[in-house]
Specification:
The protein is built from two helices and 16 strands. The protein is mainly beta and about 375 residues long. It has one domain: Porin, CATH 2.40.160.40. The protein has a 16-stranded antiparallel barrel. A hairpin with an 8-residue loop joins strand 7 and strand 8. The radius of gyration is 23 Å and the shape is globular. The chain starts with a helix and ends with a strand.
Length: about 375
């Protein structure tokens, strides 16, 4: 059943992207042919070029988890990520990108404790984005923390390994993806996740919107231990929101509230067990200062990659952020997260992040053969 699920999703993403790409390509060819026929007596057909570009970016982080409520998770995440890739742009829609993303933890040995390859195909036009391969997660998958801890992913799983399709319009966007975490080998388990997220604006230009997200996780045995317990888990959030950004004295002002459902099972021991909860978020940004407050009240949740505080029946998280400096290619931000959970009101998470990104720089252009 699980294989059928991600096979269907895989096929749907691939067919949809291929259809869009074929449509755009056919449309371009027809238009070019017609225009050339009309203008052949006036000017020669335009010369087509493909290009080569390079992209360099990095992240330095110091993130200290002072969790009395979650003592086993008390630790300091610190280090740098350095990423570089080269992109071959076949035309304005299709690209191939190859590179690497390396992690050094401060004091770690060897110097690069983790190196993630970057290698993917990208199709992108005004409304559609399709990626296939190993590509940066960046802002593509901003899942709610109740389903996926985006902070830890940024440090230790910066890439999606699989497929992603995003479609957007004036009414919002939808994103679907499959991400393989671990490939089955004699020693490694078969693990993957799949999901979708999006925002819908019923009346574009107005404050009201609906956001939603879904995530499914699968954890099976290794080839040498096929009898290992198979675990499935997943969750969904549905929120109603109001966005008053740039409509008051604040640069950003958003309110969201809704519900969360998560389920998990170990097939040989028990069937799906559900947890329900209420979620709410307020985000305020003014110049270099911002505040994000997140609240959860409900059943303890049990998702492998979610924020661990969702295992509590109730908690509040307040993030205070100050952007200390902003340069042409550089941004540095201090942050302090304060947690309140039952009997633990003073847990904290101070830290600093610096992002540097030169953007994509064109380094060569090639004339396409006739």
């Amino acid at each position: 059943m699980i294989k059928k699920i991600y096979a269907i999703v895989f096929a749907s993403l691939f067919v949809a992207s291929a259809s869009f790409a074929q449509y755009s390509s056919t449309k371009t060819q027809v238009t070019t042919k017609t225009d050339t026929t009309k203008l052949s007596k006036i000017a020669p057909a335009p010369v087509k070029y493909s290009t080569l570009d390079i992209h360099f970016n990095g992240l330095a982080f110091l993130d200290d988890h002072e969790y009395d409520a979650l003592i086993p998770l008390r630790k300091t995440n610190s280090g740098t990520r350095t990423a570089i890739d080269v992109g071959y742009n076949v035309d304005s829609l299709n690209s191939f990108v190859v590179g690497t993303n390396a992690l050094h933890e401060f004091g770690g040995v060897p110097y690069f404790v983790q190196v993630n390859p970057v290698a993917y195909y990208k199709f992108q036009n005004k409304n559609i984005l399709f990626n296939a391969g190993e590509f940066p997660r960046d802002s593509l998958l901003q899942l709610p923390r109740g389903l996926y801890n985006v902070d830890s992913a940024q440090y230790y799983r910066p890439n999606v390994e699989g497929l992603l399709l995003r479609i957007k319009s004036k009414f919002g966007f939808e994103t679907g993806f499959i991400d393989w975490i671990s490939r089955q080998t004699p020693t490694n388990r078969n693990q993957f996740m799949a999901g979708e997220l999006g925002i819908f604006y019923p009346n574009p230009g107005h404050a009201f919107y609906i956001s939603h997200a879904f995530l499914f996780e699968h954890n099976a045995g290794s080839k040498s231990d096929t009898a290992a317990d198979i675990q499935d888990s997943g969750g969904a959030q549905l929120r109603l929101g109001l966005d008053y950004s740039h409509k008051t004295i604040f640069d950003s002002l958003r309110f969201e509230a809704g519900g969360q459902l998560t389920e998990h099972r170990t097939r040989s021991q028990y069937q799906f067990q559900a947890s329900y909860g209420f979620v709410a978020t307020v985000y305020i940004g003014y110049k270099r200062f911002s505040l994000e407050d997140q609240f959860y009240d409900g059943d303890p949740s049990d998702l492998t990659y979610a924020d661990p505080f969702y295992t509590k029946p109730i908690f509040n998280r307040a993030d205070f952020m100050y952007t200390a400096f902003i340069g042409k290619h550089l941004k540095g931000q201090f942050f302090l997260a304060l947690y309140q959970s039952p009997a633990r009101l003073t847990d904290s998470e101070p830290g600093f992040r610096m992002v540097y990104d030169i953007g994509r720089k064109k380094i060569a252009r090639f004339k396409d053969p006739d």
